[in-house]
Write a structure and sequence with these properties.
Blueprint (H helix, E strand, L loop, with lengths): L1 E6 L6 E7 L2 E5 L1 E3 L1 E2 L9 H6 L5 E4 H6 L3 H7 L2 H5 L5 E4 L2 H6 L4 E3 L4 E4 L6 E4 L1 H11 L3 E3 L11 H28 L5 E6 L5 H14 L3 E4 L8 H9 L11 E3 L5 H9 L4 E3 L2 H4 L5 E4 L2 E4 L19 H5 L2 H9 L3 H27 L3 H11 L8
Parallel strand pairs: 4-15, 5-6, 6-7, 7-11, 11-12, 12-13, 13-14, 14-15
Antiparallel strand pairs: 1-2, 2-3, 8-9, 9-10, 16-17
Helix pairs in contact: 6-7, 7-8, 13-14, 14-15
Length: 377
Protein backbone atom coordinates (compact mmCIF):
# COMPACT_ATOMS: atom_id res chain seq x y z
CA UNK A 1 0.00 0.00 0.00
CA UNK A 2 2.82 2.47 0.82
CA UNK A 3 5.96 3.17 -1.15
CA UNK A 4 8.73 5.36 0.23
CA UNK A 5 9.94 7.53 -2.66
CA UNK A 6 12.58 9.81 -1.10
CA UNK A 7 13.75 11.23 2.22
CA UNK A 8 15.20 14.51 3.45
CA UNK A 9 18.76 14.14 4.83
CA UNK A 10 18.33 17.02 7.29
CA UNK A 11 15.12 15.87 8.99
CA UNK A 12 12.61 13.03 9.09
CA UNK A 13 10.61 14.45 6.19
CA UNK A 14 9.81 11.93 3.47
CA UNK A 15 8.04 11.56 0.13
CA UNK A 16 5.75 8.61 -0.26
CA UNK A 17 3.00 7.09 -2.34
CA UNK A 18 -0.13 5.35 -1.05
CA UNK A 19 -2.08 3.10 -3.40
CA UNK A 20 -5.81 2.75 -2.64
CA UNK A 21 -8.86 1.28 -4.32
CA UNK A 22 -9.78 4.67 -5.74
CA UNK A 23 -6.39 6.02 -6.74
CA UNK A 24 -2.83 6.84 -5.79
CA UNK A 25 -2.02 9.48 -3.15
CA UNK A 26 1.28 11.36 -3.21
CA UNK A 27 2.50 12.24 0.27
CA UNK A 28 2.89 14.45 2.26
CA UNK A 29 -0.80 15.11 1.67
CA UNK A 30 -3.52 17.35 3.05
CA UNK A 31 -7.06 15.92 3.12
CA UNK A 32 -9.96 18.41 2.95
CA UNK A 33 -12.59 17.58 5.56
CA UNK A 34 -16.01 16.50 4.27
CA UNK A 35 -17.67 15.82 7.61
CA UNK A 36 -21.19 15.13 6.35
CA UNK A 37 -20.38 13.95 2.85
CA UNK A 38 -19.50 17.44 1.66
CA UNK A 39 -16.47 19.70 1.94
CA UNK A 40 -18.33 22.81 3.08
CA UNK A 41 -19.11 25.16 0.21
CA UNK A 42 -17.13 23.22 -2.40
CA UNK A 43 -18.31 20.78 -5.08
CA UNK A 44 -16.47 17.57 -5.99
CA UNK A 45 -15.58 19.09 -9.38
CA UNK A 46 -14.00 22.08 -7.66
CA UNK A 47 -12.03 19.72 -5.43
CA UNK A 48 -10.72 18.00 -8.54
CA UNK A 49 -9.76 21.38 -10.00
CA UNK A 50 -7.93 22.13 -6.74
CA UNK A 51 -6.05 18.83 -7.17
CA UNK A 52 -7.35 17.34 -3.92
CA UNK A 53 -6.14 13.75 -3.86
CA UNK A 54 -8.23 12.40 -0.98
CA UNK A 55 -10.96 13.74 1.29
CA UNK A 56 -12.10 12.85 4.79
CA UNK A 57 -15.58 11.73 5.86
CA UNK A 58 -16.93 11.44 9.38
CA UNK A 59 -18.20 8.07 10.59
CA UNK A 60 -20.25 9.43 13.49
CA UNK A 61 -22.06 12.14 11.54
CA UNK A 62 -22.85 9.91 8.57
CA UNK A 63 -23.99 7.15 10.92
CA UNK A 64 -26.60 9.38 12.57
CA UNK A 65 -27.52 11.19 9.33
CA UNK A 66 -28.39 10.04 6.69
CA UNK A 67 -27.78 6.60 8.23
CA UNK A 68 -26.50 3.31 6.93
CA UNK A 69 -29.67 2.23 5.14
CA UNK A 70 -29.35 5.28 2.91
CA UNK A 71 -25.65 4.55 2.36
CA UNK A 72 -26.39 0.96 1.39
CA UNK A 73 -29.12 2.12 -0.98
CA UNK A 74 -26.73 4.47 -2.79
CA UNK A 75 -23.83 2.01 -2.79
CA UNK A 76 -21.55 3.91 -0.41
CA UNK A 77 -20.27 7.42 0.14
CA UNK A 78 -18.40 7.70 -3.18
CA UNK A 79 -21.60 7.25 -5.17
CA UNK A 80 -23.71 9.25 -2.74
CA UNK A 81 -21.57 12.40 -3.01
CA UNK A 82 -20.19 11.75 -6.51
CA UNK A 83 -16.54 11.72 -5.45
CA UNK A 84 -14.37 9.28 -7.38
CA UNK A 85 -11.12 9.67 -5.47
CA UNK A 86 -10.00 8.05 -2.22
CA UNK A 87 -11.87 8.69 1.05
CA UNK A 88 -10.54 8.32 4.58
CA UNK A 89 -13.10 8.04 7.36
CA UNK A 90 -12.42 8.51 11.04
CA UNK A 91 -13.96 6.00 13.42
CA UNK A 92 -16.20 8.35 15.37
CA UNK A 93 -14.06 8.17 18.50
CA UNK A 94 -13.29 11.91 18.56
CA UNK A 95 -16.95 12.87 18.08
CA UNK A 96 -18.01 10.54 20.88
CA UNK A 97 -15.25 12.17 23.00
CA UNK A 98 -16.94 15.52 22.40
CA UNK A 99 -20.28 14.17 23.68
CA UNK A 100 -18.95 13.82 27.22
CA UNK A 101 -22.30 14.57 28.90
CA UNK A 102 -24.26 12.23 26.64
CA UNK A 103 -22.09 9.10 26.62
CA UNK A 104 -21.24 6.03 28.65
CA UNK A 105 -17.99 4.20 27.90
CA UNK A 106 -17.93 0.45 28.52
CA UNK A 107 -15.66 -2.41 27.50
CA UNK A 108 -18.02 -3.16 24.60
CA UNK A 109 -17.95 0.37 23.21
CA UNK A 110 -19.73 3.68 23.74
CA UNK A 111 -23.43 4.17 24.39
CA UNK A 112 -24.50 7.72 23.63
CA UNK A 113 -27.35 10.01 22.67
CA UNK A 114 -26.87 11.47 19.24
CA UNK A 115 -26.68 15.23 18.92
CA UNK A 116 -29.63 15.50 16.51
CA UNK A 117 -32.60 14.13 18.45
CA UNK A 118 -31.10 12.51 21.54
CA UNK A 119 -31.85 8.99 20.28
CA UNK A 120 -29.81 6.24 21.96
CA UNK A 121 -26.93 4.95 19.82
CA UNK A 122 -24.00 2.59 20.18
CA UNK A 123 -20.62 2.41 18.47
CA UNK A 124 -18.00 -0.17 19.34
CA UNK A 125 -14.92 -1.44 17.52
CA UNK A 126 -16.76 -3.88 15.26
CA UNK A 127 -19.61 -1.40 14.67
CA UNK A 128 -17.14 1.30 13.65
CA UNK A 129 -15.49 -1.09 11.18
CA UNK A 130 -18.85 -2.16 9.72
CA UNK A 131 -20.01 1.45 9.31
CA UNK A 132 -16.80 2.34 7.47
CA UNK A 133 -17.15 -0.78 5.34
CA UNK A 134 -20.67 0.32 4.39
CA UNK A 135 -19.41 3.82 3.58
CA UNK A 136 -16.90 2.23 1.18
CA UNK A 137 -13.94 3.92 2.84
CA UNK A 138 -10.53 3.47 1.26
CA UNK A 139 -8.84 4.08 4.62
CA UNK A 140 -10.67 3.41 7.88
CA UNK A 141 -9.58 4.24 11.41
CA UNK A 142 -9.78 1.95 14.43
CA UNK A 143 -12.23 2.89 17.17
CA UNK A 144 -10.47 4.64 20.03
CA UNK A 145 -11.04 6.71 23.14
CA UNK A 146 -9.60 10.20 22.96
CA UNK A 147 -8.60 11.35 26.46
CA UNK A 148 -9.12 15.02 27.35
CA UNK A 149 -6.41 17.60 27.93
CA UNK A 150 -5.22 17.80 30.59
CA UNK A 151 -5.59 14.40 32.23
CA UNK A 152 -3.77 12.43 34.89
CA UNK A 153 -1.39 9.61 34.01
CA UNK A 154 -3.62 6.93 35.57
CA UNK A 155 -6.62 8.01 33.50
CA UNK A 156 -4.53 8.22 30.32
CA UNK A 157 -3.12 4.74 30.95
CA UNK A 158 -6.54 3.16 31.55
CA UNK A 159 -7.88 4.92 28.47
CA UNK A 160 -4.96 3.72 26.36
CA UNK A 161 -5.33 0.13 27.52
CA UNK A 162 -8.99 0.23 26.49
CA UNK A 163 -8.06 1.76 23.13
CA UNK A 164 -5.51 -1.01 22.54
CA UNK A 165 -8.07 -3.69 23.34
CA UNK A 166 -10.48 -2.04 20.95
CA UNK A 167 -7.74 -1.85 18.30
CA UNK A 168 -7.14 -5.59 18.63
CA UNK A 169 -10.87 -6.19 18.08
CA UNK A 170 -10.71 -4.02 14.95
CA UNK A 171 -7.73 -6.08 13.76
CA UNK A 172 -9.63 -9.31 14.43
CA UNK A 173 -12.49 -7.92 12.32
CA UNK A 174 -9.99 -7.22 9.52
CA UNK A 175 -8.60 -10.75 9.74
CA UNK A 176 -12.11 -12.20 9.53
CA UNK A 177 -12.85 -10.17 6.39
CA UNK A 178 -9.59 -11.30 4.83
CA UNK A 179 -10.28 -14.95 5.67
CA UNK A 180 -13.71 -14.67 4.05
CA UNK A 181 -12.26 -13.00 0.95
CA UNK A 182 -14.27 -9.84 1.59
CA UNK A 183 -12.89 -6.59 0.24
CA UNK A 184 -12.28 -4.17 3.10
CA UNK A 185 -10.71 -0.75 3.69
CA UNK A 186 -7.10 -0.35 4.66
CA UNK A 187 -7.18 0.20 8.43
CA UNK A 188 -4.96 2.54 10.46
CA UNK A 189 -4.22 2.17 14.17
CA UNK A 190 -4.36 5.30 16.35
CA UNK A 191 -1.58 6.10 18.83
CA UNK A 192 -3.03 7.61 22.00
CA UNK A 193 -1.33 8.28 25.34
CA UNK A 194 -2.11 11.95 26.03
CA UNK A 195 1.02 13.94 26.93
CA UNK A 196 2.97 11.02 28.39
CA UNK A 197 6.01 9.79 26.44
CA UNK A 198 5.95 6.32 27.99
CA UNK A 199 2.32 5.82 26.99
CA UNK A 200 2.95 7.05 23.45
CA UNK A 201 5.78 4.53 23.11
CA UNK A 202 3.61 1.77 24.56
CA UNK A 203 0.78 2.57 22.15
CA UNK A 204 2.96 2.81 19.05
CA UNK A 205 4.79 -0.43 19.85
CA UNK A 206 1.59 -2.35 20.59
CA UNK A 207 -0.17 -1.13 17.46
CA UNK A 208 2.85 -1.90 15.29
CA UNK A 209 2.68 -5.45 16.59
CA UNK A 210 -0.91 -5.68 15.28
CA UNK A 211 0.38 -4.88 11.78
CA UNK A 212 -2.13 -2.31 10.53
CA UNK A 213 -1.82 -0.76 7.07
CA UNK A 214 -0.92 2.60 8.57
CA UNK A 215 -0.75 4.54 11.83
CA UNK A 216 -2.14 7.81 13.12
CA UNK A 217 -1.13 10.03 16.01
CA UNK A 218 -4.38 10.85 17.80
CA UNK A 219 -5.32 12.89 20.82
CA UNK A 220 -3.65 16.01 19.47
CA UNK A 221 -5.26 19.39 18.84
CA UNK A 222 -7.58 18.86 21.83
CA UNK A 223 -6.58 22.05 23.62
CA UNK A 224 -2.95 21.35 24.44
CA UNK A 225 -0.15 23.88 23.77
CA UNK A 226 1.66 23.55 20.45
CA UNK A 227 4.81 22.28 22.16
CA UNK A 228 2.84 19.36 23.64
CA UNK A 229 1.36 18.67 20.21
CA UNK A 230 4.83 18.38 18.71
CA UNK A 231 5.99 16.18 21.58
CA UNK A 232 3.11 13.79 20.99
CA UNK A 233 4.44 13.23 17.47
CA UNK A 234 8.07 13.09 18.56
CA UNK A 235 7.23 10.52 21.24
CA UNK A 236 5.29 8.33 18.80
CA UNK A 237 7.15 8.46 15.46
CA UNK A 238 10.34 6.57 16.45
CA UNK A 239 8.28 3.48 17.29
CA UNK A 240 6.26 3.42 14.07
CA UNK A 241 7.43 1.39 11.05
CA UNK A 242 9.11 3.32 8.23
CA UNK A 243 7.26 1.33 5.57
CA UNK A 244 3.77 2.45 6.64
CA UNK A 245 2.08 5.88 6.28
CA UNK A 246 1.79 8.16 9.32
CA UNK A 247 -1.15 10.48 9.87
CA UNK A 248 -1.53 13.38 12.36
CA UNK A 249 -5.26 13.67 12.98
CA UNK A 250 -7.01 17.03 12.95
CA UNK A 251 -3.97 19.23 12.27
CA UNK A 252 -3.14 22.02 11.80
CA UNK A 253 -1.92 25.49 10.81
CA UNK A 254 0.45 25.71 7.81
CA UNK A 255 3.68 26.02 9.86
CA UNK A 256 2.51 23.23 12.17
CA UNK A 257 2.12 20.93 9.18
CA UNK A 258 5.56 21.81 7.82
CA UNK A 259 7.11 21.14 11.22
CA UNK A 260 5.29 17.85 11.57
CA UNK A 261 6.42 16.78 8.11
CA UNK A 262 9.96 17.43 9.37
CA UNK A 263 9.12 15.05 12.21
CA UNK A 264 8.08 12.24 9.86
CA UNK A 265 4.33 12.75 9.33
CA UNK A 266 2.81 12.01 5.91
CA UNK A 267 -0.91 12.85 6.15
CA UNK A 268 -3.01 15.69 7.58
CA UNK A 269 -6.60 16.82 7.81
CA UNK A 270 -7.96 20.01 9.32
CA UNK A 271 -11.18 22.04 9.24
CA UNK A 272 -9.33 25.38 9.48
CA UNK A 273 -9.20 26.22 5.74
CA UNK A 274 -12.98 26.00 5.36
CA UNK A 275 -13.96 27.09 8.88
CA UNK A 276 -12.07 30.38 9.00
CA UNK A 277 -13.04 31.15 5.41
CA UNK A 278 -16.61 31.42 6.67
CA UNK A 279 -15.37 34.19 8.98
CA UNK A 280 -13.77 36.00 6.04
CA UNK A 281 -10.22 34.97 6.95
CA UNK A 282 -7.72 33.84 4.32
CA UNK A 283 -4.40 32.02 4.61
CA UNK A 284 -1.32 33.45 2.94
CA UNK A 285 2.37 32.63 3.04
CA UNK A 286 2.80 35.45 5.57
CA UNK A 287 -0.03 34.43 7.87
CA UNK A 288 -3.77 34.94 7.96
CA UNK A 289 -5.59 37.98 6.52
CA UNK A 290 -8.98 39.13 7.84
CA UNK A 291 -10.76 40.39 4.74
CA UNK A 292 -13.40 42.14 6.83
CA UNK A 293 -10.86 44.78 7.82
CA UNK A 294 -11.52 48.31 6.57
CA UNK A 295 -8.09 48.85 4.92
CA UNK A 296 -9.10 46.41 2.16
CA UNK A 297 -12.07 48.49 0.95
CA UNK A 298 -10.16 50.05 -1.96
CA UNK A 299 -7.59 47.32 -2.59
CA UNK A 300 -7.46 46.09 -6.19
CA UNK A 301 -4.92 43.32 -5.59
CA UNK A 302 -5.72 39.67 -4.93
CA UNK A 303 -5.75 37.93 -1.55
CA UNK A 304 -2.13 36.93 -2.20
CA UNK A 305 0.13 38.06 -5.02
CA UNK A 306 1.27 35.14 -7.16
CA UNK A 307 -1.50 32.80 -5.99
CA UNK A 308 -2.97 30.79 -8.88
CA UNK A 309 -6.35 30.01 -7.28
CA UNK A 310 -9.56 31.16 -8.97
CA UNK A 311 -10.31 33.78 -6.32
CA UNK A 312 -6.89 35.41 -6.68
CA UNK A 313 -6.85 35.20 -10.49
CA UNK A 314 -10.22 36.90 -10.92
CA UNK A 315 -11.15 39.04 -7.90
CA UNK A 316 -9.78 41.86 -5.75
CA UNK A 317 -9.54 42.07 -2.00
CA UNK A 318 -11.92 45.01 -2.17
CA UNK A 319 -14.59 42.98 -3.94
CA UNK A 320 -14.16 40.00 -1.61
CA UNK A 321 -14.45 42.29 1.40
CA UNK A 322 -17.69 43.68 -0.01
CA UNK A 323 -19.13 40.19 -0.51
CA UNK A 324 -18.17 39.09 2.99
CA UNK A 325 -19.52 42.24 4.68
CA UNK A 326 -22.74 41.89 2.65
CA UNK A 327 -22.94 38.23 3.75
CA UNK A 328 -23.02 37.06 0.16
CA UNK A 329 -22.39 33.31 -0.11
CA UNK A 330 -20.07 33.83 -3.08
CA UNK A 331 -17.56 35.63 -0.88
CA UNK A 332 -17.32 32.77 1.59
CA UNK A 333 -17.02 30.25 -1.24
CA UNK A 334 -14.22 32.17 -2.93
CA UNK A 335 -12.22 32.47 0.29
CA UNK A 336 -12.82 28.76 0.93
CA UNK A 337 -11.45 27.92 -2.52
CA UNK A 338 -8.41 30.09 -1.84
CA UNK A 339 -7.73 28.51 1.54
CA UNK A 340 -8.04 24.97 0.24
CA UNK A 341 -5.76 25.86 -2.67
CA UNK A 342 -3.24 27.29 -0.22
CA UNK A 343 -3.16 24.11 1.89
CA UNK A 344 -3.07 21.74 -1.07
CA UNK A 345 -0.44 23.81 -2.89
CA UNK A 346 1.67 23.92 0.28
CA UNK A 347 1.84 20.11 0.17
CA UNK A 348 2.79 20.23 -3.52
CA UNK A 349 5.63 22.61 -2.70
CA UNK A 350 6.78 20.45 0.21
CA UNK A 351 6.84 17.31 -1.97
CA UNK A 352 8.89 19.13 -4.59
CA UNK A 353 11.32 20.43 -1.95
CA UNK A 354 11.86 16.94 -0.53
CA UNK A 355 12.38 15.54 -4.03
CA UNK A 356 14.98 18.14 -5.02
CA UNK A 357 16.78 18.22 -1.67
CA UNK A 358 15.76 21.75 -0.66
CA UNK A 359 13.31 20.96 2.15
CA UNK A 360 15.56 22.37 4.89
CA UNK A 361 15.69 25.75 3.14
CA UNK A 362 11.97 25.65 2.35
CA UNK A 363 11.10 24.80 5.95
CA UNK A 364 13.25 27.60 7.39
CA UNK A 365 11.95 30.27 5.01
CA UNK A 366 8.30 29.28 5.29
CA UNK A 367 8.17 29.04 9.07
CA UNK A 368 10.18 32.25 9.60
CA UNK A 369 8.02 34.27 7.19
CA UNK A 370 4.69 32.99 8.49
CA UNK A 371 3.34 35.30 11.17
CA UNK A 372 1.11 33.33 13.50
CA UNK A 373 -2.00 35.35 14.29
CA UNK A 374 -4.98 34.37 16.35
CA UNK A 375 -7.24 32.04 14.36
CA UNK A 376 -10.93 33.01 14.51
CA UNK A 377 -13.11 30.54 16.40
Amino acid sequence: MFELVSTDPTSKARRGRITTRHGVIETPVFMPVGTQGSVKGVSPMELIDLKAQIILGNTYHLFVRPGMEVMKHFGGLHNFMNWRGPILTDSGGFQVFSLAKLRKITEDGVHFQNHLDGAPCFIGPETAMEIQQTLGSDIAMVFDECPPYPCEFDYAERSLDLTLRWAQRCKTWCDQQDAAGTQRPAVFGIVQGATFAALREKAASALTGMNFEGYAVGGVSVGEPEAEMMLAVENSEPFLPADKPRYAMGLGTPPQMVEMIARGIDMFDCVLPTRIARNGTAFTGHGTVNLKNAPFIMEKGPIEEGCACYACREFSRGYLRHLIKAEEILGLRLVTLHNLHFYLNLMTRVRAAIDDGTFAKFRKNFVQNYVCREIPA
